[in-house]
Task: structure prediction
Amino acid sequence: MDRKKTGPHEALFARAKKVIPGGVNSPVRAFNGVGGTPVFVESGRRQKIRTADGRVLTDYCCSWGAMILGHARREVVASVGRAASLGSTFGIATPAEVDFAERLVSLVPSMEMVRAVSSGTEAVMTAVRLARGVTGRRIVLKFDGCYHGHSDAMLVKSGSGVLTMGASSSAGVTAGAVADTLVVPYNDLSAVKQALAEHGGDIAAVIVEPVAGNMGIVPPADGFLKGLRALTRAAGALLVCDEVICGFRFGFSTYSALYAGVVPDLVTLGKVVGGGLPLAAVGGRAKWMRQLAPTGPVYQAGTLSGNPLAVAAGLKTLEILEREQPYARMAELGSALAVGVGTIAAEHGLPITCQSFNGVFTPFCAEGPVMCLADAKACDLKLYAKVFHGMLDRGIYIAPSQFECNFISAAHTDRDVDEFLDRFDDVCACI
Ligand SMILES: *Cc1c(COP(=O)(O)O)cnc(C)c1O
Result:
């Protein structure tokens, strides 16, 4: 299908590029992984987004999972409106942030205390500093292709937009920061064992995405997370589960609690728990959390941390999730979609494996299974770009990069899945 050469998106992008680096405020939005002009969204409602050229698309990005209830859910909008009318931030403690902390502590077994921050990046940055502060050790071990936000320590062999750039690290990250970060392959317990054996006394923490989401979705192998728990405990290192995507996405708590049976020392949350506003959290054992300022020596702060506006969105989102428990249905839709994609691709002789877990999916352009970054990198990125643009031309927005997840929200329906598969079949026929 012909894509218009000039239109509202081209005009907006031209303006944007003059005043915003690359025209975007987060790299993956620039479509570098798939080519073409990025779309600009004017509004969203439920599972649909309306773009600046007047098209309505079915959205499988959902702000990278944050909009688990769909866009502009009425009760959330009302709750945020009420909070805004009462003052959106004070720089003084508010009752709502106590409610938010109590809620998370009651729902996440490993969280005895929690601190609110404004982004997943901050939550992880705080967890890493805290782990170093309480252990007095310098090294953090992470997994190749896992993304933990854009703090220096975490930009070594990172996933998500960093992968799309083709950079395994970032300029501006010092050799010292790189030296303090060890990277091993995801799902490779023996590599962890070896790293701990070599550097054990220096390792402050092992940080992991319990289900890796930022190289496309890669579930943990059997025993991987339990193995990490046992190894970190033996080495005196903290286990940090970065559940910024996973938390409250696959069920009404964290992945580590609901699926892995693992009690991490620290957990980071973001995306879903912020209800679409800038709100994230880091929590864990009280013994560690008390080491944060003002009770402890590890500094951390934030002008907008736990502000009543963001907390209103987060609390209302959690309340609706608890009441409606959309998880089983999202999982059903997700597996119908993934199975359908696999079947259709096979019929067309295309090497596409759709991996999914409970409503989160990635169509990997490879035979699969994808178990680690090396597998993900072996994907046919040109084929992915064709699938992406084919779907976009037909009214469906999937992630503009192979190294990301797609998200089914509580607002998606059976009809959306049918539509997806119908369009995907058509796209495959045209490739
Ligand atoms: C999105 C994400 C982050 C960073 O969160 P921001 O709010 O974008 O800073 C950290 N960790 C994981 C696992 C993520 O998916």
Summary: The chain has a mean pLDDT of 95. The pocket of pyridoxal-5'-phosphate is lined by residues 64, 119-121, 124, 147-149, 209, 213-214, 242, 244-245, 270, 280 (CB under 6 Å). The first strand starts at residue 41 and ends at 45.
